[in-house]
């Protein structure tokens, strides 16, 4: 989850690294540090606890120099967020530094072995072990009789990482071998940027996108050596590899706030564009057909599928729950949805006639990668729904559907979620067309509704924002809240509750509306805000029935003096008479209503967090990409 930036090139090093860290601070903000080196072996390190601005204040005015360097923003796993535990970490001699994203699972065993060799440790972190381990490789090489040539840094790194167990992406500098920046990956993401006579290392694309769009993605077991002459790739054994750069089409300006007070608000307002980019080129209103060229599964192969198994985490899990309703309703295939963090531990029953779908914004989520590995081990074809082309999950999948949402910086996911829903809806219709479970007229109606969706999201943003801002001023003092939904709308209740708890720190719970009598009614009193998703597709009898049942649940709440905020479709006069507050959205087909419903819930959470003075983009104890278990 941590942010890593490295640079080798002619520009002043400190501004390049600091700016990159600023763009990656969403990955970790417990502490920050920078290491600077020159071509003569001098190495200096500066670190500060807290957010990046503390490091910037520390080095402000210092005459910092260097021809290459490494920076890091930390999300704490082992050790408190103190200056001593901040990266980069040194070895005993102080001539080698390491930055690290991930967890070394066998660090205690390695630490004891190194202490037996008189290494002295000064931090609580697992990362410090890596620095000492590499140092020991240099010492062991010097002790080999007849050895005269110094051990290259990359070879010392390769020998050291072969002893590590766990997940890691590291960057290393050493005075023993000046002029080199070495990176290695096993699990968490790491990318290499190719500029004009300059080279970059980062843990995520936005950290270097303002310098280059030519990006190479390190794969597990890769080592990269960055020098002024270029980049060389090898595996952990030293065998040469080819990792040609890919062109990343994201606009660097997309990763800037563009006048918005927070990235989250900017990304909420980017949702019409994100959904439009996700569906662009994938549906034809002339033929009424969906086209998914990167699926890599033939119609014959898809017809053999008897079950869909989806694994994901967090907000992506909520998107997966919506997809279950979409696929089962439209394509008539059974769907199971699992938390990726639980998937492999329950010994799932899987087979070749199952299709595995992995949903992930970053494409690097550790638990989702582990679930994918379990599926592949059972010979299942896997499909990735992902926002980052070239990341680990789509690389390992048979096929993929890119969400094309662009970089998402706010820790609380917004536009990635709605883009995932749009992509999963396309896949559901595609499956239905292959399986002949929908008529051509039904498909055309669904795709027409999808085409209208970006404009409808824009309309929701215009109408709901002032309402949500006003509601936030009324409800920001609440310490608990309840979100209710029924059927396909229940996952949106879960997502609304998650957004509120993530960024405002208010305890919030999502619940199926039909389960109110089985416990949650006991929570209701005059202080409890209850957000009810109560929308309907008037042309769908099942949707209307669910809506009517939800109205009954709302009356259960109002009868107990609960304060109801309803999300309902325009011109719904009945619900206006029942509840205290209503946020209206346009009506559309049942399967697409979740995309419209979630937008006001995002805005509601955002404005409440602002009223409470919370750090919206960087909520406490959370990071954007969860690249460790």
From TrEMBL:
**GO MF annotation list:** carbohydrate derivative binding; glutamine-fructose-6-phosphate transaminase (isomerizing) activity
Annotated ranges, domain SIS? 298-437, 471-619
Q: Name one GO cellular component term.
A: cytosol
UniProt KW Transferase keyword: yes
According to its UniProt entry, the protein's GO biological process terms are:
amino sugar biosynthetic process; carbohydrate metabolic process; fructose 6-phosphate metabolic process; protein N-linked glycosylation; UDP-N-acetylglucosamine metabolic process
* UniProt keyword annotations, A-Z: Aminotransferase, Cytoplasm, Glutamine amidotransferase, Repeat, Transferase
> Subcellular localization, per the record?
Cytoplasm
Subunit field text: Homodimer.
Q: What is this protein called?
A: Glutamine--fructose-6-phosphate aminotransferase [isomerizing]
Q: Which organism is it from?
A: Terriglobus albidus
What gene name does this entry carry?
glmS
């Amino acid at each position: 989850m941590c942010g890593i930036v490295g640079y080798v090139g002619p520009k002043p090093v400190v501004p390049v690294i600091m700016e990159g860290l600023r763009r990656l601070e969403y990955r970790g903000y417990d502490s920050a540090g920078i290491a600077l080196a020159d071509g003569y072996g001098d190495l200096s390190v500066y670190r500060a606890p807290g957010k990046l601005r503390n490091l910037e204040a520390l080095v402000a005015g210092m005459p910092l120099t260097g021809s290459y360097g490494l920076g890091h923003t930390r999300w704490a796993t082992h050790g408190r967020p103190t200056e001593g535990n901040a990266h980069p970490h040194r070895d005993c001699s102080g001539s080698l530094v390491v930055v690290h994203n991930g967890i070394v699972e066998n660090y205690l065993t390695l630490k004891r072995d190194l202490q037996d060799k008189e290494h002295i440790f000064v931090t609580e972190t697992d990362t410090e072990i890596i620095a000492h381990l590499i140092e020991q490789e240099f010492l062991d090489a010097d002790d080999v009789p007849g050895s005269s040539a110094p051990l290259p840094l990359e070879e010392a790194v390769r020998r050291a990482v072969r002893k590590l167990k766990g997940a890691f992406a590291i960057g290393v500098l050493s005075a023993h071998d000046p002029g080199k920046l070495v990176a290695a990956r096993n699990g968490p993401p790491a990318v290499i940027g190719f500029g004009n006579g300059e080279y970059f290392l980062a843990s995520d694309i936005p950290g270097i996108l303002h310098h280059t769009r030519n990006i190479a993605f390190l794969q597990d077991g890769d080592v990269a050596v960055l020098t002024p002459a270029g980049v060389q790739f090898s595996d952990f054994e030293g065998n040469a590899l080819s990792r040609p750069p890919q062109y990343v089409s994201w606009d660097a300006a997309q990763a800037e706030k563009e006048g918005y007070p927070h990235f989250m608000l900017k990304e909420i307002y980017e949702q019409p564009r994100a959904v439009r980019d996700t569906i662009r080129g994938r549906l034809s209103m002339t033929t009424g057909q969906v086209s998914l060229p990167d699926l890599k599964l033939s119609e014959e192969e898809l017809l053999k599928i008897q079950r869909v198994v989806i694994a994901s985490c967090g907000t992506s899990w909520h998107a997966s729950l919506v997809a279950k309703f979409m696929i089962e309703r439209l394509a008539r295939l059974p769907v199971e949805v699992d938390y990726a963090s639980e998937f492999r531990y329950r010994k799932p029953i899987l087979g070749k006639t199952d299709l595995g779908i992995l949903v992930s914004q970053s494409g690097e989520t550790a638990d989702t990668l582990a679930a994918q590995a379990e599926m592949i081990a059972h010979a299942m074809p896997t499909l990735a729904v992902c926002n980052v082309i070239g990341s680990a999950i789509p690389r390992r999948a048979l096929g993929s559907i890119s969400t094309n949402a662009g970089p998402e910086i706010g820790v609380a996911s917004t536009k990635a979620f709605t883009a995932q829903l749009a992509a999963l809806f396309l896949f559901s219709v595609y499956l239905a067309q292959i399986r002949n479970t929908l008529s051509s007229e039904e498909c055309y109606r669904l795709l027409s509704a999808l085409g209208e969706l970006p404009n409808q999201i824009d309309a929701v943003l215009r109408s709901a924002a002032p309402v949500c801002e006003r509601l936030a001023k009324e409800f920001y003092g609440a310490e608990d809240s309840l979100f209710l939904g029924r059927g396909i709308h229940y996952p949106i209740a879960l997502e609304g509750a998650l957004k509120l708890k993530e960024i405002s720190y208010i305890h919030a719970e999502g619940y199926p509306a039909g389960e109110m009598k089985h416990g949650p009614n006991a929570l209701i009193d005059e202080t409890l805000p209850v957000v009810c998703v109560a929308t309907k597709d008037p042309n769908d009898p099942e949707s209307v029935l669910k809506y009517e049942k939800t109205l009954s649940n709302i009356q259960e709440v109002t009868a107990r003096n609960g304060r109801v905020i309803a999300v309902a479709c325009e011109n719904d006069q009945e619900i206006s008479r029942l509840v205290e507050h209503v946020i209206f959205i346009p009506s559309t087909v049942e399967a697409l209503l979740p995309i419209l419903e979630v937008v006001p819930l995002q805005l509601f959470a955002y404005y409440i967090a602002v009223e409470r003075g919370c750090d919206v983009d960087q909520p406490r104890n959370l990071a954007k990409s969860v690249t460790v278990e």
